[in-house]
TrEMBL record:
Listed transmembrane segments: none
Pfam family, one: ExsA_N
Listed name of the protein: Helix-turn-helix transcriptional regulator
PANTHER family, A to Z: HTH-TYPE TRANSCRIPTIONAL ACTIVATOR RHAS (PTHR46796:SF13), HTH-TYPE TRANSCRIPTIONAL ACTIVATOR RHAS-RELATED (PTHR46796)
DNA-binding in keyword set: yes
Keywords: Cytoplasm, DNA-binding, Transcription, Transcription regulation
Keyword Membrane set for record: no
Native source species: Chryseobacterium antibioticum
The organism's taxonomic lineage, starting at the top: Bacteria, Pseudomonadati, Bacteroidota, Flavobacteriia, Flavobacteriales
SMART domains: HTH_ARAC
Domain of life: Bacteria
InterPro entries in UniProt: AraC_XylS_family_regulators, ExsA-like_N, Homeodomain-like_sf, HTH-like, HTH_AraC
Gene Ontology MF terms: DNA-binding transcription factor activity; sequence-specific DNA binding
Residues in HTH araC/xylS-type domain copies: 172-267
């Protein structure tokens, strides 16, 4: 069935679908403000699974991994609209308005909430650009992004401590992070960035923590999890191989047989 993922202008993205489908792993480099026009987005990341229901606004943190499943509404349509709040724009906004972060924003704060008339009005104002009934000038794009920031701060002034924290990512516990995120099929470079390390620093620290290379460990960890799910949870390989970071089913079968000396059906 038809589905679209369209960049309307450089910071506005519209996603539409008419059937349930699983999205690819995504690395989110910048904050973005999203609005669920219709249907539901089921999102999974290292901390939790969350359901973004229709008429919900979500502020998504930068520098994280996320996996989604998109479900159309009862009328058969999925629509999600998002606008990116990139670092350069946030820095400029903070300078113009003399705003600084004065404390660390809580990592456990939930960042999605029901839309009010201001947020709904804002996203409705973007629909003409999606419908191609109006073209966006560069000046208007800047104004619409700034309007999004204003609405976020109006909804919760403490969001300034999230959006305007420009400190460098600090090194986090590599071992804990990898155990939580091994199932995401992203590059080693992305894992390095998310743990606050250069690629060489990540590989060095990884070897100290696991005494094995990142690629080898990821393959072993995913296969061990697969064995557990098939053997003890009666899961089918076709239902779990993508969830565990394998790109195709035939490669999964080959790697599984190579590691355990038996096929998935034999265990």
């Amino acid at each position: 069935m038809e589905r679209t993922f369209e960049i309307i202008f450089d910071k506005l993205v519209y996603s539409c679908a008419f059937e349930t489908y699983r999205g690819h792993e995504e690395f989110i480099p910048d904050y973005f403000l999203g609005f669920q026009l219709s249907g539901e987005t089921h999102a999974f990341h290292d901390k939790e699974r969350m359901i973004i229901k229709e008429n919900t606004v979500v502020l998504v943190r930068k520098n994280q991994l996320i996996r989604t499943v998109k479900h159309p509404s009862k009328n058969g349509k999925y629509q999600f609209l998002s606008i990116t709040l990139d670092q350069e724009t946030l820095r400029q906004y903070a300078a113009e308005n003399r705003i600084t972060a004065d404390e660390r924003f809580s990592d456990t704060e939930r960042l999605f909430f029901e839309s009010d008339e201001f947020f709904r009005g804002y996203f409705v104002s973007l629909l003409p650009y999606i419908d191609k009934t109006k073209a966006a000038t560069s000046r208007l794009i800047v104004l619409k992004v700034k309007e999004a920031i204003e609405l976020i701060l109006q909804s919760n002034p403490d969001f300034k401590n999230l959006l305007f924290d420009f400190s460098e990512p600090h090194k986090i516990d590599l071992k804990e992070f990898m155990i939580k995120n091994f199932m995401f099929n992203v590059s080693v470079e992305t894992f390095a960035r998310l743990t606050g390390r250069s690629l060489s620093g990540f590989k060095r620290d990884f070897n100290k923590a696991f005494n094995i290379t990142p690629k080898q460990w990821l393959k072993e960890k995913r296969l061990e999890e697969a064995y557990y799910l098939i053997r003890h949870k009666n899961k089918k390989p076709s239902d779990i191989y993508l969830e565990l970071g394998f790109e195709n089913l035939s490669h999964f079968y080959y790697a599984f047989k190579q590691k355990f000396g038996m096929t998935t059906s034999e265990i």
